[in-house]
């Protein structure tokens, strides 16, 4: 056997010799495997942004973050919407997931599909491997990634809503929820249709809830204090807070009215103090502040 053939055989033996014990990842060098472990499974992110709380395992990701988030450098524009990206691969990913609905990354253990490779890794770690090393210090929540735990803290315990609608006062803790809001409320895009009735929505989860509630009668979440049942865990929490705990965080500055949700306070101010009448009859000049009144009149 020639020297060249020996070298080729040696290289072939070395390629992807190091295998991850938590997923299907394989690497040619141990250093690459260690980086994979730190990044994906251990959540070690040593590169930190000095302008915000962003952290990442790789230096070039930090550079991209600073360019796009803090310097506003976004050279790649989507020709189907207003989305802009700092890198071409982000634009391609955006088009594939948002406009084409392509989900290339599929779980080998179940039917889960996603357009993000990292989301698939998180799914496998959390659902199939049970790797949830990051624990919430305020409740029993556990996560496979530190970033997910941070998101949980912001959403559940701190109520931080960083994503704001540019067309109304809607705010949310999740970017995906903002997109659903804009699609459904402002653009009228409701691609998820019920096969049993005329119900349409921009939110796939809302369609599932509608099916369970309206057509299947499934109410798996039950109140421990009364007979209340609901299809949604979030609705049960609202019920507990408002009915049994009497929590009303949002107070009107013009009267004694208090509300659990900010949207309820906004509606109260518009109706009671501003006299706003957003609902107009299409057949005459009648206007009202309540949609139900317009329907029944």
From TrEMBL:
One of its GO terms (molecular function) is zinc ion binding. InterPro entries: Zinc_finger/UBP_domain, Znf_C2H2_sf, Znf_C2H2_type. It comes from Cryptolaemus montrouzieri. PROSITE patterns: ZINC_FINGER_C2H2_2. This is C2H2-type domain-containing protein. Keywords: Metal-binding, Repeat, Zinc, Zinc-finger. The keyword GTP-binding does not apply. Signal peptide: none annotated. The keyword Zinc-finger applies. GO terms for cellular component: nucleus. Residues 18-46, 76-104, 105-133, 134-162, 163-191, 192-220, 221-249, 250-278 form the C2H2-type domain.
């Amino acid at each position: 056997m020639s020297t060249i053939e020996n070298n080729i055989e040696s290289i072939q033996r070395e390629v992807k010799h190091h295998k991850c014990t938590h997923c299907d990842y394989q690497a040619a060098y141990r250093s690459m495997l260690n980086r994979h472990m730190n990044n994906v499974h251990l959540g070690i992110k040593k590169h930190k942004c000095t302008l915000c709380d962003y952290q990442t395992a790789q230096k070039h990701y930090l550079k991209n973050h600073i360019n796009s988030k803090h310097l506003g450098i976004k050279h790649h524009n989507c020709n189907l919407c207003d989305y802009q990206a700092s890198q071409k691969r982000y634009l391609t990913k955006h088009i594939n997931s948002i406009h084409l609905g392509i989900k290339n990354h599929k779980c080998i253990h179940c039917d889960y599909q996603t357009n993000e490779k990292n989301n698939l890794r998180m799914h496998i770690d959390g659902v199939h491997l049970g790797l949830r090393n990051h624990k919430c210090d305020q409740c029993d929540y556990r996560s496979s990634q530190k970033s997910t735990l941070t998101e949980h803290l912001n959403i559940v315990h701190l109520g931080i809503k960083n994503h704001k609608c540019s067309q109304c006062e809607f705010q949310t803790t999740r970017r995906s929820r903002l997109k659903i809001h804009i699609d459904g409320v402002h653009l009228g895009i409701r691609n998820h249709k019920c096969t049993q009735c005329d119900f349409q929505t921009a939110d796939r989860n809302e369609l599932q809830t509608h099916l369970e509630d309206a057509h299947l009668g499934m109410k798996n979440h039950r109140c421990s204090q009364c007979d209340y049942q609901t299809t949604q865990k979030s609705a049960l929490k609202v019920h507990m807070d408002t009915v049994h705990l009497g929590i009303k965080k949002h107070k009107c500055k013009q009267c004694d009215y208090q509300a659990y949700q900010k949207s309820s306070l906004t509606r109260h101010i518009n109706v009671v103090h501003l006299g706003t009448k957003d609902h107009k009859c299409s057949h005459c000049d009648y206007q009202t502040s309540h949609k139900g009144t317009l329907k029944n009149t």
